[in-house]
Description:
The chain is built from 5 helices and 6 strands, in the order H-H-E-H-E-E-E-E-H-H-E. By secondary structure, it is of the alpha+beta class. Strand 2 and strand 3 form a beta hairpin. It starts with a helix and ends with a strand.
Amino acid sequence: MKLDSLVRLKKLNKGFTVVELLVVVSVIVILAAIVLVVYPSYLTSTQDNARKSDIQQIASALSAYALKNNSFVDANSTDGSGNHCGFLGAGNGWFNAGPDAFFPASILTCLKNAGVLKKDIIDPTGCTSDAPSGCSVSGATTAYMKATCTKGGNPVTYVIARLVGQPRRDTEVDGLCDSGTVSGFSAASQKWGTNYGMNYYVTVR
């Protein structure tokens, strides 16, 4: 083997210097730190955008339901098998909760069985109400709600959610409905801002 070939081979087998390794490790640490800082904010933003889209889809389904049944899901609404929708069968409350003793049928099921909603819609966390473990943190719940009531004496229907990346709006959300006008809810329990941290809503048209 020629001398110049031996020199080149020796250089190839030299490996990294300590300085080079320190530079590589430093770059990796910096990139990891950036990911740790940026990713939670990115995840929150992505989930909140999904919530906004979900709420709009639910509102559209409720509008379609009203065209067919002359209501936005109320105490007379059923899942097609005789089970009434929502909390105490009154058509309000957690959108995905049920079937159980408090929610004979979920509002989601009633809309799907009526043919106005084609897919399951649930909060990105998978939470259906404040009951599952981890779904209620510091008095705030990530799950969808539906409420039909009166505001200023006029009938109105809302779909409500909690956007994690936005501040609480308790007073505004608590006042969405005239006090005590949500079927199945007392005046205190319909305060969805104070009780559950809900801070985003869409009015169903």
